[in-house]
Specification:
This protein has 17 helices and 15 strands. The chain has about 500 residues and is an alpha/beta fold. The chain folds into four domains: about 130 residues, HprK N-terminal domain-like (Udp-n-acetylmuramoylalanyl-d-glutamate--2,6- Diaminopimelate Ligase, Chain: A, domain 1, 3-Layer(aba) Sandwich); about 110 residues, GAF domain (Beta-Lactamase, 2-Layer Sandwich), CATH 3.30.450.40; about 110 residues; about 90 residues, Arc Repressor Mutant, subunit A (Orthogonal Bundle).
Length: about 500
């Protein structure tokens, strides 16, 4: 895969049968001057052969075009600008030796200059390079066939896709990574080859590609390392992304990579068929769990998350990637979960101790999630209803917990425009007084009620003396016509404060 596997100037100069001799000091050349792939060898004695030359070739000349008035700076400059990789001078044909001016200019321009002895015809140099190209092409085709066979055998092993990717990385001599449909790294070979920051950058780009449904291979440079990314699957049904830590592929290597992409697509399609069957099974098991009977699910699945559990419902969520994410949590961290699709969304059941993972899910997939309180399986239906109720309160991505809604859910449901008008009218004397005097009797009442009508902690929160707070409460009660020593009056006041607009 690297440049040394291809015909180069160094390989041509090393042919003993040709007797070529490098005239330019190697330490004066660019580091890769002799190791850049050489496309062809051409001969010309024209004063300006560049209109007839391609890039990345070696030019051979006998020097018949050179005379006393030749400007070697112009001649060599044209060759350099055209991308000529080397200049061979045939000695003892029209003149002995190589002109010193030519040697100096080639050295200044960094073009390798070499001597072609009289006994070596130019056609022999061109033929030698042609043979090297043919040998290299044959070697690459042989490599491709051998690699295809090795990949086919790898696919037959247990965990065939992972084994195939490992074999691909070994054959290419590069790091190979596989990102699943959720954009998470599923396979990495060799595992310690790429830094965590680069892996994070790749995951972000893979997620973007999958989200946007892009199919074409892409190149990405992270921290000065280049990667090539290829999607797996059909448009609209992308299954993942394969990343290679390299910046280019020749035709044979690209053919190999294309075959791996096809194999990966087939393997993932088969996995997806199994996953769809699994999701249908889970949906059926959900029906029995909603009857508060987890026995069937335990027998079929071999176990469920430990009770007490939290039930969550995710709206507009991708079931497949969600299940993949929770499966990875189970394999890597031992986190038990149960997921099933329903008319309300994807239902997730986890142990109450793992409830915090729902925030990670909402952030990663950008979905709305309603979460129940902690319940036993005997109350699974109630937990599910709580999750659905919480979800209906949520309009933005994130987790909305039922426990956060129970304090105001009844009042919120009853807070019609008419109820708000009544509440604001009842509170008007208090608010008018606060507006005129600059006092905050309403705030004092709220704080007092939030502290269960206990004066000492409320006064401490407000930073006033308890007698001052008692005086404010009494004044507020007089303005509103409430006897705040009774529970019904306090309850009605709390309802008014919660219903009225601030």
């Amino acid at each position: 895969m690297d440049a040394t596997e291809q015909p180069t100037m160094r390989a041509l100069l090393s042919r003993r049968d040709l007797g070529l001799r490098l005239v330019s000091p190697e330490d004066a050349l660019a580091p890769d001057a002799l190791d850049t792939p050489l496309r062809w060898v051409h001969s010309s004695d024209l004063a300006d052969p560049t209109p007839f030359l391609a890039e990345d070739l070696a030019l051979l000349t006998t020097g018949t075009q050179f005379d006393a008035g030749t400007d070697f700076d112009v001649y060599v400059g044209r060759l350099s600008d055209r991308g000529v990789l080397g200049l061979g001078f045939g000695t003892d044909v029209h003149r002995a030796g190589i002109p010193d001016e030519l040697i100096a200019e080639c050295g200044r321009r960094g073009i390798p200059l070499f001597e072609v002895p009289y006994r070596t015809p130019f056609i022999a140099v061109a033929r030698a390079h042609s043979e090297a190209i043919a040998a290299q092409a044959y070697a690459r085709r042989s490599w491709a066939l051998d690699t295809q066979r090795a990949l086919a055998l790898a696919a037959l092993r247990p965990h065939g896709l992972d084994a195939t990717l490992a074999e691909l990385g070994r054959r290419l001599g590069v790091w190979v990574g596989m990102y699943d449909a959720s954009g998470a790294l599923q396979s990495s070979h060799p595992r310690a080859e790429v830094s965590a920051s680069r892996l994070a950058g790749l995951a972000g780009r893979a997620t973007e590609i999958l989200t946007r449904g892009l199919e074409a291979g892409q190149s990405l440079t992270i921290d000065e390392q280049t990667f090539m990314l290829f999607t797996v699957g059909r448009g609209g049904q992308l299954r993942g992304v394969i990343a290679l830590a390299l910046d280019t592929l020749d035709s044979e290597a690209r053919t190999v990579v294309t075959s791996v992409i096809a194999m990966a697509g087939l393997a993932l399609e088969q996995s997806e068929q199994l996953a769809r069957s699994r999701r249908r099974l889970h949906s059926q098991l959900l029906g029995s769990m909603l009857e508060n009977d987890p026995g069937l699910a335990r027998r079929v699945l071999g176990g469920l998350p430990q009770s007490p559990v939290t039930v969550a419902v995710a709206a507009d969520a991708p079931a497949g990637p969600l299940m993949d994410w929770w499966d990875r949590r189970r394999s890597e961290h031992g986190t038990a979960s149960f997921l099933a699709e329903s008319a309300d969304g994807v239902v997730m059941c986890v142990s109450a101790s793992d409830e915090g993972l729902l925030d990670d899910v909402a952030t990663r997939f950008g979905v709305r999630i309603g979460a129940s309180g902690s319940e036993s399986y005997d109350a699974f239906a109630r937990a599910h209803a709580q999750a659905v109720a919480a979800l209906r309160q949520q309009s933005d991505a994130g987790v909305f917990r039922y426990a956060d809604t129970v304090g105001t859910s009844i009042l919120s449901a009853l807070a019609t425009d008419e109820a708000r008008l009544v509440a604001e009218s009842r509170l008007a004397p208090l608010r008018d007084h606060d507006a005129r005097s600059g006092a905050d009797l309403e705030g004092a009442l709220r704080t007092w009620l939030e502290h269960d009508a206990r004066v000492d902690p409320a006064a401490a929160t407000l930073g006033v003396h308890r007698h001052t707070l008692r005086s404010r409460i009494a004044q507020a009660g007089a303005l509103l016509g409430f006897d705040l020593s009774s529970f019904p009056a306090r309850a009605e006041l709390w309802a008014l404060l919660q219903t009225a607009r601030d």
